[in-house]
Specification:
Number of helices of chain A: 13
Structural class of chain A: mainly beta
Oligomer: heterodimer
Radius of gyration of chain B: 29 Å
Strand order of the largest sheet of chain B: 1-3
Distance between the termini of chain B: 82 Å
Radius of gyration of chain A: 33 Å
Largest sheet of chain B: 2 strands, antiparallel
Strand content of chain A: over 45%
Shape of chain A: globular
Helix content of chain B: 25-40%
Shape of chain B: globular
Number of helices of chain B: 21
Largest sheet of chain A: 22 strands, antiparallel, barrel
């Protein structure tokens, strides 16, 4: 099919090779900047003849031959273009270029329809200065938080290879399908995590319905548009950057030493009238380290982790070209080191969590004729992640589980210690941290991605002026290979008493396992086709542009798709979208968009959805009364948009199809056990019982968001001060949910048909400002942004409930819910006078245990008293504040980032001390803080309740007592750079040399101290986030 | 000129493009070869499989007879169980907790019968909508399949009705699970509406079903089965609990409509009698009897027939003539339950699940294992019989058992009294044959002839304190029977769980004896005569309290059990007095249907449960050791199996979650409802 388009277009091109002959003249000269320095590689072209052009040489000189009576255009990046008319004689034309002064009116915004002047934009779009994203992070998603108005993000892990951030545009407004944004790289849906940041040319975030309507189907959660760099005609530009980073940790949980652990274990037992775990003599042996085989004192965290790890990044790019063809070529390399200690005696392989990535990209633009442009882009990445044979989660499970006194790292006779034998899920998770991180073999993950795309732009001015056709085709493949090579040594545990000979008695708990291999693979393939016809023209003060666009895309998993036929079918979309914009004198702007989109996942008749959007803007600053009186007001635009956007991101494939099988819905039993024999005794005249294993949900269709946006753009004194603020309001209906509360009477127990039932309302603000000023040689900029979003479930699939607060409706998505704690019980009198706490055996409640509020007043505290408390686990407020300054070659950049309005519960066996007996280490905070201690500190407002050994059902439940504030402010980036004087660098034929020093996450301020609050982790059992210092060098020539 | 070509090319190009795009989202080709309803009902095998799944819902929690974890209603004032804390769980059950202590999910006993039934109803409804004759299914087969689906649907409603009382009757097409929750909320229908609906389903079933089954279809319902279920539903509808019962005036739907009729209507009894007559009129069923056995020893699995005491009427006549001269009453009765008779060998069996309940976890096999002694039988020794049930069995001459006048002391040697071995308490002597087929009293003979080890065959089990199968020092152990009276029914005489064979047993879901007794019971309630059409309208029955008819119906059941008809015992003629006859019929049902999931529901429909079920359970004194064994048999209240009665125990509750999901559903009286 694409073949046809190409052949048709080739034919079109051939038809247009027409030209005429005129007199030729020769022009030469020198191009200099305002300081008189020659500009190397400035381009000189003949206007409207892109094939004809030259670039200046190293002295800034050029020479060009052209036909008479034409314009020459002089251009150089960062300078204003100049045009000069050449008459019919040879001449010398020296040009002094003026540095360009961008104004608000010239600022370009990348929209779904292509680049557009900011002044004419009517939707809510944030264009991000790519420079601010270029911090030394391995994934661009980590740079979004606090940098981009409208994006809420959080990073959950620091492990190399998995240290990306989750982010949501304007928060989360659904709970059914996916809430993640659509990411388009060069117009195609691609991941941005494996992108090389240096390759990014522009980055914009489309937030409201009018901006995303053109993507109708998938724009409901917002769209991120990324374009990669392309070559430009003129001088060859070479850029290289190299960075070295040292990563340490922001906050790692700290655990107690052996003696403190043992003393607290005794306290936990004694305070519940149980026998102490350790005798005084044993405590002394632990304290003095008299018998480290049986009474060791190990700092497991220290055994597991190094102080820091290095990361090395390098990238290089070349771009250039002439007026006929241009190119951009880049390559980059990243090597991120893991923080685990390794067994140095083991040379054969590495067990550390390392991550390496190679990227390349080649973008080529060719003007085949004066009206035909072909763009080809190829990019790819190869990633390799390495880690121990055991999974990362299990390593953290283990290091939080081993207490300092139960096991040494290695018994003195060389035996490997282990806390318990392998049973069920305990397999591997309970090896000691050193064993699990270094002695379990190793795993490798390889991922590789290849992206390719071709774009053809054909101006159709010969049909009518301003008409243009663009066709795009993209093809991506991705594959992922996982190989685990797993083994473990023989493991032992010593008994706590030596035998009569004074020897340690060992029990073998885990047998040795020799190296065995496990592997898996997955992969996918994507194809995209787009064809659009654009028409844009100015008629005096009127500006009209329209776009009509056809798209389809195809996504299919190519391996590891199992036996389900549905999983082997490609996910497809098809759509027709259009846009009509009308502007009058850049003053009154109107915009209508529509998307008519189809998804293969729905039943016929429900496949297509129509998503219209409208927007309008009034640029008050263009009104004459403003222009005449308030000339400092460069732009004052008020915008409004409304539109509908759809999402088909339902996890269930082809919900309208039913499945059949031999199945017992109640027990889940299948095949042979579901059988009815109609024969007599001891005979077999029966049949298996066939029924629905999945019922069909015929009416499932698009999830639809109705979005309103009101925004103000405000620019003063050119672009010295800019402010954009948007209020948004969204209602998401028809959210995908499974109907889990059908009466059993319906007769399809255990089957939850899919349906569009949920509804969420969300609203919020986002905005950003910047202020640039230059005083003498010092230039500085202050900038800031914030995003706040709040949602409420207005409808969800749920049962009638006696207590409205137990429902989801009326509360936020991900609302934290728990009991309300009223402090700790003071004494038995207090317990007797309070409602019965009905968790486990209510007679076990003692003074120093958590006292809860009886919400429903029924005299019993139970699960009916669980109410919404705090905010959501993911932040609802993100803000950033940046300051940068330049002075001659020096530049300085400071960026603070913060998050607020989030809460999370802490739990697990480190937060609930001794909940699993000897399994679970004790946080230092617990030992040193104001803790309830029998007879010593019976403070009803203590931070931790009475200890208990082996768990306490009353204390260890989600409540305000364990709810923590997830808000934080951190010094995200501190950067100092120095650019060597040009006079010096030109001597080495270098254009620009800059050295920089960047610190990231240097400072974190938060109420929560146990681990990094950004992770939002309830137990801290995650690879910690990094605090980094980077030294780097950038060279351009 | 040139432009024309360009335009033409563009149009052709676009045309081709649009053409190839128009089916871009079509995925049907991937799914053409998948299973779908059309394919299922075009294939005979798949059609049968679909139906099998509906039948499958008659198992586990919808079994008539099985383990307590599934069929709690089999335990009323007649049987006890000790599973879970030596009787504590039985007491909890008696106090109205159908909860988790029997194992399984917290709500399984309450919710699962409901779930399973409605699931099967949907399955049958889909079947009825789709089944059609075709290449693989003949017209004849289609008719019978349809009849089966109607039967299953009606039968599942019947099971629901019996347990939960009036339930919502759903549209025949099934509910649309894509409809809004509010339109999926259905209220209960009245009891009478439910009965009429079941009757209508069964009439359709009877119209389509075959009358006879070969052994390869022995467990499929027949015309007779459909009519029998209809008769049962009518009988329940006529019974005091549902017929003009003002105590149930609070049982209403969400609009306040009374679900149980408040006006007594005698005609309902007439309809019930006529419906029973429909079954009898088929002439297909008869009471099973085993021939008299003249060989065989005194003990072993199949001993020589022991004659009933001489009776002038019955002892001289053969079975065909209306006597017991040529039959073995013990064998005749026990063979119905112990697996000796297969489904197609039993002329009395009207409907059975056949061997589909052969599961150690829940079926009859599981129950018999729970009755078997631990020590030498390899059983669990935890199901027993109450003293009340034990005393209800008459003497072998048909006179009631009377403890005051009964013999005391112990047998001196094996065979001193029929069926008794040495050292057996004399109150157990000279009882009717059904007693010996049903009760495992202390010292009863267990033949267990399939056991490989001789020690485990032909042994006696005593339940004295400290004995292997008696109460132990650790009294929380479940493996002893708190009443000191075990149960023999369903145990095959050859069976051994220890080192022998286990015999599959037939599920006696509906048997002819039940129809006969129902017929007599219904006639007995009539004070005038009624004209009722037969099921197919072919004739009009005139039904009234016809003593001859009642006598004729009851006689075979009594004779097979080796006891004279009520008027031939020599202590009066209860047929002349409706109240006396009612009492006799109730007692007869108690004896005949022990452990067949009847007593529990009978006591409720008669409204006798408040009295009968609230009585303390008495039994032998299990704290007495062998040394002072005569005190063991002094009847005492059994402390570990408490009982009580409350209104809520008439009908089962509906699970809390279901009430929350179906806002129009109302809770049965006495149970916490959801507001």
């Amino acid at each position: 099919m694409n073949k046809y388009i190409l052949s048709v277009l080739c034919f079109v091109l051939y038809a247009m090779g027409v030209s005429a002959q005129k007199k030729t003249v020769e022009v030469s000269g020198t191009i200099v900047d305002s300081e008189g320095l020659p500009l190397i590689g400035a381009t000189v072209i003949v206007k409207e003849k892109p094939g004809l052009g030259v670039a200046t040489d190293i002295d800034g000189k050029y020479k060009i031959a052209l036909e008479s009576f034409q314009y020459l255009v002089f251009s150089y990046l960062g300078f204003e273009n100049q045009e000069h008319l050449v008459k019919d004689e040879n001449m010398i034309l020296n040009v002094t270029m003026q540095e360009s002064k961008a104004t608000a009116l010239d600022e370009i915004t990348i929209t779904g329809m292509g680049p557009q002047k900011k002044v004419t934009v009517t939707g809510a779009i944030t264009t991000v200065d790519v420079g601010t994203l270029k911090t030394p992070v391995s994934s661009i998603s980590n740079a979004l938080v606090g940098n981009v108005a409208g994006v809420l993000a959080m990073q959950r892990s620091g492990q190399p290879g998995s240290n990306t951030s989750e982010f949501w545009i304007r928060g989360i407004s659904t709970f059914g399908g996916s809430s993640s944004a659509l990411i388009l790289v060069d117009g195609f849906e691609r991941s941005m995590d494996e992108l090389n940041i240096e390759d990014i040319e522009s980055f914009s975030v489309l937030k409201d319905a009018s901006a995303t309507a053109i993507y109708g189907s998938r724009g409901a959660n917002g769209v991120i548009l990324i374009t990669t760099k392309r070559g430009n005609d003129g001088k060859v530009e070479v850029n290289a950057k190299s960075e070295y980073t040292w990563t340490t940790r922001t906050r790692t949980p700290k655990f107690v030493d052996g003696l403190t652990y043992a003393t607290m274990a005794n306290e936990a037992r004694v305070s519940r009238n149980q026998k102490a775990v350790y005798s005084d003599q044993e405590l002394m042996m632990i304290g003095e380290q008299l018998d480290p085989d049986i009474y060791p004192n190990v700092d497991w965290m220290n055994i597991l982790l190094k102080d820091g790890a290095p990361t090395y990044r390098a990238s290089a790019s070349v771009k250039g070209g002439g007026s006929r063809a241009r190119y951009y070529l880049s390559g980059s390399f990243l090597d991120e080191g893991g923080m685990y200690n390794v067994d140095k005696t083991m040379k054969e392989y590495d067990t550390n969590a390392n991550y390496q990535r190679y990227n390349y990209r080649l973008n080529i633009d060719m003007n085949i004729t004066s009206s035909t442009l072909v763009q080809v882009g190829i990019g790819g990445s190869l990633e390799k992640t390495n880690h121990a044979g055991a999974t990362s989660d299990n390593i953290w499970y283990s290091v939080f589980g081993y207490n300092p006194v139960t096991m040494p790292v290695m018994y003195s006779n060389g035996y490997v210690p282990v806390i318990q034998s392998e049973e069920g899920e305990m397999l591997e998770r309970r090896y000691n941290p050193w064993t699990i991180a270094t002695q379990t073999g190793y795993s490798e993950i390889w991922k590789n991605t290849i992206n390719s795309n071709v774009t053809l732009e054909q101006k159709l001015d010969f049909l009518t002026e301003g008409l243009k056709f663009t066709g795009r085709f993209g093809y991506d493949t991705y594959n992922h290979n996982y190989i685990q090579r797993r083994k473990n040594p023989e493991m032992w545990r010593a008994e706590r008493q030596r035998n009569s000979d004074g020897m340690v008695v060992f029990n073998r708990l885990v047998p040795e396992r020799l190296l065995a291999q496990y592997s898996s693979a997955s992969g996918d393939r994507k194809e995209f086709v787009e064809a659009e016809i654009l028409y844009g023209k100015n008629f005096d003060d009127h500006n009209i542009s329209t776009v009509l666009k056809y798209t389809h895309d195809n996504y299919v998993n190519t391996s590891n798709i199992g036996g389900n036929i549905m999983e082997g079918v490609a996910r497809r979309h098809q759509g027709l979208a259009g846009n009509i914009s009308y502007g009058f004198m850049n003053r009154y702007l109107f915009n209508y968009n529509f998307g008519y989109n189809g998804s293969e996942n729905f039943a016929k008749g429900h496949q297509y959805g129509f998503f219209p959007a409208y927007s309008a803007a009034w640029n008050i600053a263009e009104e004459n009364f403003v222009k005449d009186n308030l000339d400092w007001l460069s732009m004052f635009k008020v915008r409004y948009s409304y539109g509908e956007v759809g999402s088909d991101n339902s996890s269930s494939r082809f919900p309208y199809l039913a499945d059949f099988g031999n199945y017992d819905r109640n027990t889940g039993a299948g095949d042979q056990s579901v059988y009815y024999n109609w024969g007599d005794m001891n005979s077999a005249f029966g049949y298996p019982g066939l029924t629905y294993t999945r019922v069909s949900s015929n009416n499932v269709t698009w999830e639809i968001a109705k979005k309103h946006d009101v925004g103000v753009d405000f620019y003063l004194w050119g672009d010295k001060f800019g402010l954009t603020v948007d209020y948004f309001n969204e209602r998401r209906d028809g959210i995908y949910m499974n109907r889990a509360f059908l009466p059993d009477m319906v007769g399809i127990q255990g089957q939850n048909p899919s349906a569009n039932v949920g509804s969420v309302k969300s609203e919020g603000f986002d905005g950003n400002f910047k202020f640039d000023e230059r005083i003498g040689d010092v230039g500085f900029q202050v900038r800031g942004n914030f995003t706040y979003s709040k949602n409420e479930i207005t409808e969800a699939d749920e049962m009638v409930n006696r207590y409205p607060y137990l429902r989801r409706t009326g509360f936020r998505v991900d609302q934290a819910k728990g009991l309300v704690a009223l402090g700790l019980f003071e004494d038995y009198e207090d317990i007797r006078n309070s409602p019965r706490q009905d968790f486990g055996d209510s007679r076990d409640v003692m003074p120093g245990d958590i006292k809860y509020k009886d919400i429903n007043g029924d005299g019993i505290i139970n699960n009916d008293d669980i109410v919404p408390i705090g905010a959501t686990t993911r932040p609802n407020l993100i803000y950033g504040l940046g300051l940068s300054a330049t002075w001659k070659g020096l530049d300085f950049n400071l960026h603070f980032q913060g998050a607020g309005k989030s809460n999370f519960f802490i739990n697990g066996y480190t937060v609930y001390p001794f909940v699993n007996g000897e399994w679970g280490n004790i946080l230092e905070d617990m030992a040193s803080s104001n803790r309830w201690i029998l007879g010593e500190n019976e403070d009803p407002n203590a931070e931790y309740p009475r200890l208990s050994y082996g768990g306490n059902t009353n204390n260890y439940r989600a409540s305000t007592y364990w709810l923590r504030d997830g808000s934080y402010v951190r010094l995200k980036t501190l950067e100092i750079g120095y650019t060597l004087p040009k006079a010096l660098t030109t001597r080495f034929y270098l254009d620009k040399v800059r050295i920089h020093l960047v610190g990231q996450n240097l400072l974190t301020l938060s109420k929560f101290k146990l681990w990094d609050p950004e992770m939002g982790s309830s137990d801290g059992m995650k690879y910690p986030l990094g605090k980094t210092v980077t030294f780097g060098l950038t060279v351009s020539l | 000129m040139k432009r024309k070509y360009i335009l033409l090319s563009v149009i052709i190009g676009l045309g081709t493009f649009v053409q190839s795009c128009s089916d871009y989202l079509d995925v049907q080709r991937y799914f053409n070869d998948r299973q779908d309803l059309e394919r299922i009902f075009n294939s005979r095998d798949y059609t049968e499989e679909w139906l099998a799944n509906a039948y499958y819902q008659l198992l586990s929690f919808n079994l008539e007879i099985g383990h307590v974890r599934f069929t709690l209603t089999n335990y009323s004032d007649d049987m006890i169980f000790t599973e879970g804390g030596a009787g504590i769980s039985f007491s909890n059950y008696k106090f109205g907790q159908y909860g988790p202590q029997y194992g399984g999910n917290v709500n399984a006993l309450i919710a699962r019968p409901w779930d399973q039934s409605y699931e099967g109803i949907r399955q049958a409804s889909i079947f009825l909508q789709n089944v059609h004759p075709g290449d693989e299914i003949s017209e004849e087969m289609y008719t019978d399949l349809k009849g089966q689906a109607y039967f299953i649907r009606g039968y599942l409603y019947w099971l629901l009705l019996r347990k939960y009382g009036p339930v919502p009757i759903l549209p025949d097409d099934g509910l649309d699970y894509e409809a809004s929750y509010s339109s999926l909320a259905y209220p209960r229908n009245t009891y009478d509406e439910c009965v009429e609906y079941i009757s209508a389903q069964m009439l359709l079933a009877a119209e389509f079903l075959e009358s006879d089954r070969s052994s390869r279809s022995a467990s499929r319902p027949t015309k007779g089965a459909a009519l029998a279920v209809r008769a049962k539903a009518y009988l329940y509808g006529a019974s005091p609990l549902m017929n003009g019962n003002q105590e149930m005036s609070t049982f209403v739907d969400d609009n306040g409509k009374q679900l149980i009729s408040q006006q007594y209507d005698e005609e309902k009894w007439a309809k019930a009698a006529a419906a029973a007559l429909d079954v009898m009129g088929l002439g297909k069923y008869e009471i099973y009897v085993a021939p008299k056995r003249s060989n065989g020893g005194l003990w072993g699995a199949y001993p020589k027939t022991i004659d009933a005491p001489y009776h002038p009427v019955y002892s001289e006549k053969t079975w065909k003539e209306g006597g017991w001269k040529d039959i073995d009453p013990l064998d005749s009765y026990r063979a119905l339950f112990n697996g000796d008779l297969y489904v197609s060998e039993n002329p009395e069996l009207i409907f059975s699940r056949g061997d589909n309940q052969l599961n150690d976890e829940y079926g009859i096999q599981s129950m018999s294992r729970h009755q078997m002694p631990v020590s030498r039988g390899g059983g669990w020794n935890c199901h027993g019989i109450t003293g009340k049930q034990c005393d209800a069995y008459a003497m072998n001459d048909g006179e009631p058992f009377d403890r005051a006048t009964s013999m005391k002391g112990f047998t001196q040697h094996d065979g001193q009294y029929p069926y008794l071995r040495k050292d057996v308490w004399l109150e157990y002597a000279n009882r009717e044959p059904r007693f010996y087929a049903s009760v495992a009293f202390s010292g009863a003979h267990w033949s267990n002839t399939s056991a490989r080890d001789g020690n485990n065959r032909d042994f006696q089990t005593f339940y004295y304190y400290g004995e292997d199968d008696g109460r132990k020092i650790v009294s929380t152990d479940d493996r002893w029977i708190p009443t000191g009276i075990g149960m023999m029914k369903y145990v095959n005489p050859k069976e051994s769980y220890k080192d022998g064979t286990v015999y599959p047993k037939v599920d006696p879901a509906i048997r002819y004896a039940d129809i006969l007794l129902m017929y007599a019971e219904a006639l007995n309630e009539l004070t005038t005569s009624y004209q009722v059409p037969s099921w197919d309208g072919s004739e009009i029955y005139t039904v009234s309290r016809d003593i001859a008819a009642m006598k004729a119906a009851i006689l075979p059941v009594r004779l097979r059990g080796g006891v004279p008809n009520f008027d031939e015992i020599g202590i009066g003629n209860p047929y002349n007095n409706p109240e006396e006859l009612r009492r006799e019929i109730k007692r007869e049902r108690q004896i005949e249907f022990l452990g067949e999931n009847q007593r529990y529901y009978d006591l409720r429909r008669w409204k006798d449960a408040p009295e009968e079920e609230s009585q303390m359970i008495y039994g032998c004194n299990t704290t007495v050791p062998k040394e002072s064994r005569e005190y063991f048999y002094e009847q005492v209240v059994v402390p570990s199996v408490q009982t009580t009665w409350s209104m809520k125990k008439y009908f089962w509750p509906i699970a809390y979650d279901e009430l929350k999901r179906n806002a129009r559903l109302t809770q049965a009286p006495g149970w916490p409802s959801f507001d």
